[in-house]
């Protein structure tokens, strides 16, 4: 508990234009990894534009570690097929949290993260003060695959008794 900074909630919104891995479609799901932690969304059957709308919550002890996403197509009779991967850093998000920006008008942009060759962002990602908390929406372009993007939102949860930010 003394190493715990807090919890990172990832709202896995949806996939867009994911690769076809079955005859006409795919049965996609996402695995999220941070350090040794590994979480998984549910499988959305026969859909290359799945809407998960699921919250996955990871404990954060080292904010310099990247969050890694792996998208797979669920197969019943063989190994699941890879449908791409992506990763992102939570550094800019954590820096915005450390500013302690209580009282800002909802919708205030705190910082912007631009797509580069080193990250998987498809578009500019904004860290925003929304409804009394810091959030970050991002669209990640999948690597090692012919097409696909993942849309998600980051949110922070403070834990009483943790080291905190």
Structure, described:
The chain has 165 residues and is mainly beta. It contains one helix and ten strands, in the order ββββββαββββ. It has a six-stranded antiparallel beta sheet, covered by helices on one side. A four-stranded antiparallel beta sheet has the order 3-2-5-6, with no helix packed on it. The longest helix has 8 residues.
Q: What order do the helices and strands follow?
A: EEEEEEHEEEE
Indicate the overall shape. Answer: globular
Give the strand order, joined by hyphens, for the main sheet: 4-1-10-9-8-7
The percent of residues in helical segments reads under 10%
- Major sheet details: 6 strands, antiparallel
N- to C-terminal separation?
13 Å
Concise description?
With 165 residues, the protein is mainly β. The chain is 5% helix and 47% strand.
Keyphrases for this structure?
single chain, 165 residues, mainly beta, six-stranded antiparallel β-sheet, four-stranded antiparallel β-sheet, 1 helix, 10 strands, 5% helix, membrane
Give the arrangement of secondary structure elements.
Blueprint lengths: L5 E11 L11 E7 L2 E4 L10 E10 L6 E7 L7 E8 L2 H8 L9 E6 L11 E6 L2 E9 L7 E9 L8
Antiparallel strand pairs: 1-4, 1-10, 2-3, 2-5, 5-6, 7-8, 8-9, 9-10
